[in-house]
């Protein structure tokens, strides 16, 4: 796939930067023929991934960095990567189960939302080495309905 456009930002692990990340990625994604509903879903998925970095990856420390890279390929696929250098995830399969959370007061639905709103979600993580979440989505009007 040929690269059509790319953006990268780094944000401090501040709660107010979750909103910055979500609107920045949505504005970038709006170059494609996404519906308003698609853009809202992208915002939620990005919010969940960035929030996971802040809450779980960095244990709410506000002096760490979260990297966000977004790419649009010539086949109109949006790929968003959220990366932290936090504590990492020991068991990715367990972490992606609905209602699983390492924090008891949390609902544990972040990965479930990401999976339901994006075409694919890939997680690469190791304890002590951080986590990278890769989200991909293609505008729904371009998806062949027979593939669903």
TrEMBL record:
<comment type="similarity">
    <text>Belongs to the anti-sigma-factor family.</text>
</comment>
<dbReference type="InterPro" id="IPR010194">
    <property type="entry name" value="Anti-sigma_F"/>
</dbReference>
<dbReference type="InterPro" id="IPR003594">
    <property type="entry name" value="HATPase_dom"/>
</dbReference>
<dbReference type="GO" id="GO:0030436">
    <property type="term" value="P:asexual sporulation"/>
</dbReference>
<dbReference type="GO" id="GO:0042174">
    <property type="term" value="P:negative regulation of sporulation resulting in formation of a cellular spore"/>
</dbReference>
<dbReference type="GO" id="GO:0004674">
    <property type="term" value="F:protein serine/threonine kinase activity"/>
</dbReference>
<protein>
    <recommendedName>
        <fullName>Anti-sigma F factor</fullName>
        <ecNumber>2.7.11.1</ecNumber>
    </recommendedName>
</protein>
<feature type="region of interest" description="Disordered">
    <location>
        <begin position="127"/>
        <end position="148"/>
    </location>
</feature>
<dbReference type="Pfam" id="PF13581">
    <property type="entry name" value="HATPase_c_2"/>
</dbReference>
<keyword id="KW-0418">Kinase</keyword>
<dbReference type="GO" id="GO:0030435">
    <property type="term" value="P:sporulation resulting in formation of a cellular spore"/>
</dbReference>
<dbReference type="InterPro" id="IPR036890">
    <property type="entry name" value="HATPase_C_sf"/>
</dbReference>
<keyword id="KW-0749">Sporulation</keyword>
<dbReference type="GO" id="GO:0016989">
    <property type="term" value="F:sigma factor antagonist activity"/>
</dbReference>
<keyword id="KW-0067">ATP-binding</keyword>
<dbReference type="GO" id="GO:0005524">
    <property type="term" value="F:ATP binding"/>
</dbReference>
<dbReference type="InterPro" id="IPR050267">
    <property type="entry name" value="Anti-sigma-factor_SerPK"/>
</dbReference>
<keyword id="KW-0547">Nucleotide-binding</keyword>
<dbReference type="GO" id="GO:0106310">
    <property type="term" value="F:protein serine kinase activity"/>
</dbReference>
<keyword id="KW-0808">Transferase</keyword>
<comment type="function">
    <text>Binds to sigma F and blocks its ability to form an RNA polymerase holoenzyme (E-sigma F). Phosphorylates SpoIIAA on a serine residue. This phosphorylation may enable SpoIIAA to act as an anti-anti-sigma factor that counteracts SpoIIAB and thus releases sigma F from inhibition.</text>
</comment>
<feature type="domain" description="Histidine kinase/HSP90-like ATPase">
    <location>
        <begin position="37"/>
        <end position="141"/>
    </location>
</feature>
<keyword id="KW-0723">Serine/threonine-protein kinase</keyword>
């Amino acid at each position: 796939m040929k690269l059509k456009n790319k953006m990268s930002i780094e944000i401090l692990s501040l709660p107010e930067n979750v909103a910055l990340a979500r609107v920045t990625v949505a504005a970038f994604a709006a170059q494609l023929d996404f519906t308003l509903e698609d853009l809202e879903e992208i915002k939620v998925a990005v919010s969940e991934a960035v929030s996971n970095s802040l809450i779980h990856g960095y244990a709410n420390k506000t002096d760490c960095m979260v990297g966000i890279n977004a790419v649009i390929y010539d086949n109109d696929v949006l790929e968003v990567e959220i990366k932290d250098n936090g504590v990492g995830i020991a068991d990715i399969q367990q972490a992606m189960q609905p209602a699983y959370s390492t924090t008891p007061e949390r609902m544990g639905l972040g990965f479930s939302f990401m999976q339901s709103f994006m075409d694919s979600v890939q997680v690469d993580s190791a304890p002590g080495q951080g986590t990278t979440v890769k989200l991909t989505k293609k505008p729904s009007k371009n998806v062949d309905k027979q593939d669903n």
